[in-house]
Design brief:
The complex is a heterodimer of chains A (792) and B (82).
Chain A (H helix, E strand, L loop, with lengths): L2 E9 L5 H9 L3 E5 L6 E9 L2 E7 L11 H13 L3 E7 L3 H14 L3 E6 L1 H6 L2 E3 L1 H8 L2 E4 L8 H13 L13 H15 L10 H9 L3 H7 L3 H22 L3 H20 E3 L7 H9 L4 H42 L4 H18 L2 H17 L1 H15 L6 H10 L5 H6 L7 H10 L9 H11 L4 H24 L12 E3 L7 H33 L7 H20 L10 H20 L13 H12 L12 H28 L1 H13 L6 H10 L4 H12 L11 H7 L5 H13 L4 H10 L2 H29 L4
Parallel strand pairs in A: 1-4, 1-5, 5-6, 6-8
Antiparallel strand pairs in A: 2-3, 3-4, 7-9
Chain B lengths: L1 E5 L8 E7 L3 H9 L7 E7 L6 E5 L2 E5 L1 H4 L2 E6 L4
Antiparallel strand pairs in B: 1-6, 2-3, 2-6, 3-4, 4-5
Classes of the chains: A alpha/beta (792), B alpha+beta (82).
Chain lengths: 792, 82
């Protein structure tokens, strides 16, 4: 029978907490949310000396006040879940400030163990720590570690087990905060002890201390006992007046001063500095990277390189995945008879999910890039450099993180982007940021952007995409300014942020980071998007054409077939329908081969009619190399080409008639009354309605709309080609559609997160606001473009 | 000669010792928990491209704050005048 233990990892941000967590638990991790909030709860397991240890990674905090969501979450976990032990990760190279949190754990009284991390970094800076002395003065066991290289991990786990075996009581260690504060503390403790507030979860000393610090959560807890609350309030006011008069300082300030005073006493004895290093390596790097002129230029270059890297690295795997889903499509076509089931599998499932999965490599490399920015410490510098700019738009330097992850460098995702807004403390700044994050070009928008850009702006694709990224930033910032000067008016909050030292990210950390986010994306593809694809497929398939209408198209088809077989060029060469079916098959084989290798389609079996097929292919596709033409095959080939095009045209008319009849078609037609002014027809409308649920669906739905029930499955794969040939599609229309997609409603998953992070009211606002902005801008661009004759 | 000035008015690379943090409420708490308390030595590390925020070095790490926040912090520095 193994014994169970729960330990919590806690510490400052950038102290190496995540690295230590990964080092302890390896790949055995589980991510969930703390109940009711979107702060991630990471936990993992490890077995050590017969103990099954659950390790909970608490959010990184600097303090245990009720100031931010993370701090409340961390505190509530400690108080309510009562872990067997708290492992406090302390950055040895930044001891003073890290110990400030340690002091608060001691005040709370949790069973504590210190992992003195980054001993190597401290040593390289000439900081020598007497671990024994430190441990003695703090009254806490200290284990030196270097989490990056797994040093000290077994020792740490040994101590964890040892401490857990001596069942430890909570033992609040309240310091002395000067005679005035100490006296008031005693008074409040007395009041609490005899009141109903006396609680086994919180020690009276801690409650008293927090009340003097003006902790809102504790003060409202105290309010539950009115009599005690009044007494405590009187003590607080008296102390406040007294210290302000005598020391020109609030009690809160005095308490902080004494904590740091105590820490200074500890480090004075336990820490020796060999060299007084004025500027360490990180500081020297900063002199360049945050330089007034070089800094911003480098930042732009870094972002641009990230783009290039993502697309360069993602290109080949994207092709592989496309090839894989192509194979799957062929396999289904080979084994499932034509009909509704095949249509569901190909148009509904494979195209829908394939369209999203095809995008996984790009997303993955983008997440990797973001992880590098985060883990190296550069992201914080970007926030530092951009804070002044963002503040002008009513945002905060830390909004950068959310905007970047949300798609500021294309390929992000609004869901983690909106989750990243929790680093913003002011609710107004936070909500303004999360409302504009969906304007960024997230990874889900890229397929439709990519397809339209490839079709209409083929000559400079990378630059076009970059331009759209800048546009999305522009729109997001202006929208933020608008929101912050109307519905969310208010001052900006402090920008008090640590610039962590530059660190080389660990491969393992990067991989875990990247994988977690990619996996979330893939789960979305496998669940929400699969479901939506099937629903949309059904909406675009049923009720469909009546038998009478189907018969009409069929008879039309039979007529042109008969006409073709009876024409003078064909008579005798193609004797009957079976020969025509053979010719059709030969033609598709040839075209398939020609697509794979345009120069020499060799793999097509030799056939007497091959020259005719070659010639007809040239006539239909247009020859890139009109060198050798086979004159003798000409008449038959041109008759066949003409017949083929007529057959395809009938098929298209039939598809369109069928689509218009369906539920989606009717809805799309109805919406044309509104979207006509921005150049969208019912097919685009259907796709955009699908995009409500997930933006990836837009491109696949458009593909389905243009291919559903297609006679020739080959044609479905080339949506871009089709749009290019369609005279109704102009560059202006494509441009407008890109803008509209960029701005209109957040996807379903994003709305769910907005709901979690704010309230239903903001979900409604987000939908309405984005639709209005998207329509307004698309209207201006489309009508303006038409009037000026640009891109028509 | 020593004199007391606002942190905002310190020059790049200038060093000094915090004498008073007059911010209250959330901002005061935040500044204090990050280690900006009386008698802490600091040095101006640099400023963002648009001169705001400012980066300061204290207690072995680098902290950034806006000029507006730096206004609440009084620092004792060596006076350049004799």
């Amino acid at each position: 029978m193994t014994k169970k233990l729960t330990i919590a990892l806690a510490g400052n941000p950038n102290a190496g907490k995540t690295t230590l967590f990964n080092a302890i638990t390896g790949a055995r991790q589980h991510i969930a949310n703390y109940p009711g909030v979107t702060v991630e709860k990471k936990s993992g397991r490890v077995t050590h000396r017969g103990y099954d240890i659950e390790v909970v990674d608490l959010p990184g905090t600097y303090s245990l006040t009720a100031y931010s969501l993370e701090e409340i979450v961390a505190r509530d976990f400690l108080v309510k879940e009562r872990p067997d032990l708290v492992v406090n990760i302390v950055d040895a190279s930044n001891l003073d400030r890290n110990l400030y949190l340690t002091m608060q754990f001691e005040e709370l009284g949790v069973p504590l163990l210190i992992a003195l991390n980054m001993m190597d970094e401290a040593a390289s800076r000439g900081i020598v720590i007497d671990v024994k002395a430190l441990s003695g003065m703090l009254g806490v066991l200290v284990v030196p570690t270097v989490a990056r290289s797994h040093q000290g991990i077994p020792e740490l786990l040994n101590k964890v087990v040892e401490l857990a075996e001596k069942s430890k009581q909570w033992n609040p260690g309240i310091l002395s905060y000067g005679s005035d504060v100490d006296q008031s503390l005693q008074e409040i403790v007395t009041v609490i002890r005899k009141s109903q507030l006396y609680d086994k979860n919180y020690s009276s000393e801690w409650l008293a201390l927090k009340s003097l610090e003006g902790d809102q959560q504790i003060l409202s807890l105290i309010k539950s006992d009115e009599a005690a609350s009044r007494e405590i309030e009187a003590i607080r006011t008296k102390l406040y007046r007294h210290t302000l008069n005598t020391l020109d300082e609030e009690p809160e300030g005095i308490i902080a001063d004494h904590r740091y005073g105590f820490i200074a006493g500890v480090t004075k004895k336990a820490v020796k500095r060999k060299i007084e290093s004025r500027l360490n390596l990180s500081d020297r790097i900063d002199k360049v990277l945050t330089n007034r002129i070089v800094g911003p230029l480098l930042m732009m270059s870094v972002l641009y390189v990230l783009y290039e890297f993502t697309f360069w690295a993602g290109k080949t795997p994207v092709e592989w995945i496309g090839y894989f889903f192509g194979l799957l499509r062929e396999l289904v076509a080979a084994f499932v008879p034509e009909g509704t089931l095949r249509s569901l599998m190909v148009s509904g499932v494979i195209d829908g999910v394939g369209g999203v999965f095809g995008f996984v490599p790009l997303i993955m490399f983008m997440f990797l890039a973001v992880a590098i920015l985060e883990d190296s410490g550069y992201m914080a510098r970007m926030a530092f450099m951009l804070d002044r700019v963002l503040r002008w738009f009513g945002l905060h330097g830390n909004s950068v993180m959310a905007l970047l992850i949300g798609g500021g460098i294309s390929g992000g995702c609004a869901v983690p982007g909106i989750m990243a807004t929790r680093t913003l403390r002011d609710p107004k700044e936070r909500i303004a940021t999360l409302l504009v994050v969906p304007f960024m070009n997230c990874g889900a928008k890229l397929p439709i952007f990519g397809m339209l850009i490839a079709a209409f702006f083929a000559t400079d694709q990378a630059r076009m995409l970059f331009a759209f990224t800048l546009l999305s930033w522009g729109f997001a910032l202006l929208a933020a300014k608008l929101i912050r000067s109307t519905v969310l008016k208010g001052p900006t909050t402090p920008f008090v942020m640590e610039l962590p030292p530059y660190r080389l990210p660990t491969i393992r950390g990067l991989l875990i980071h990247t994988w977690e986010r990619t996996w979330q994306y893939m789960k979305k593809a496998g669940t929400i998007i699969l479901g939506v694809s099937i629903i949309l497929w059904a909406m675009m398939t049923f009720p469909g054409l009546s038998q009478k209408e189907l018969d009409r198209f069929e008879s039309e088809r039979l007529r042109i077939k008969a006409d073709f077989l009876a024409s003078p060029e064909v008579m005798g060469k193609i004797p009957n329908e079976r020969a025509l079916t053979d010719l059709d098959k030969l033609f598709s084989d040839y075209r398939k081969a020609a697509q794979k290798d345009p120069s020499a389609p060799k793999r097509v079996a030799d056939h007497p009619l091959l020259p005719v097929v070659k010639e007809a292919h040239t006539l239909i596709e247009g020859a890139k190399d009109p060198g050798k033409r086979n004159e003798s095959a000409r008449p038959l080939a041109s008759a066949y080409a003409e017949y083929r095009q007529m057959a395809v045209e009938i098929g298209n008319r039939e598809n369109e008639a069928a689509l218009e009849k369906t539920v989606a078609g009717r809805l799309g037609r109805f919406l044309e009354r509104i979207t006509g002014a921005i150049g969208f027809d019912y097919k685009v409308n259907i796709a955009l309605v699908g995009g409500f649920v997930a933006k990836e669906v837009i491109v696949s739905t458009l593909g389905t709309a243009y291919s559903l029930g297609s006679v020739d499955p080959e044609e479905a794969s080339r949506l871009a080609e089709k749009l290019k040939r369609d005279s109704r599609w102009t560059p202006l229309r494509a441009f407008t559609l890109i803008l509209f997609t960029m701005l209109y409603v957040p996807c379903f998953a994003t709305l769910v997160v907005i709901r979690k992070e704010s309230s239903l009211k903001w979900v409604g606002f987000s939908v309405a606001f984005n639709l209005i902005v998207a329509y307004g801008i698309s209207f201006a661009v489309y009508q303006g473009g038409k009037a000026l004759g640009i891109g028509v | 000669m020593k004199k007391i000035i606002r942190m905002r008015d310190m020059a790049d690379n200038q060093a000094g010792t915090i004498k008073k943090v007059s911010a209250t409420g959330d901002m005061g708490r935040r500044l204090r928990e990050m280690g900006l308390v009386r008698d802490t030595p600091i040095q101006i590390q640099g400023r963002a491209p648009l001169k705001d925020p400012v980066a300061i070095k204290l207690r072995d790490f680098v902290l950034t704050l806006r000029n507006r926040e730096a206004d609440h912090i009084l620092v004792e520095v060596e006076s350049s005048e004799p």
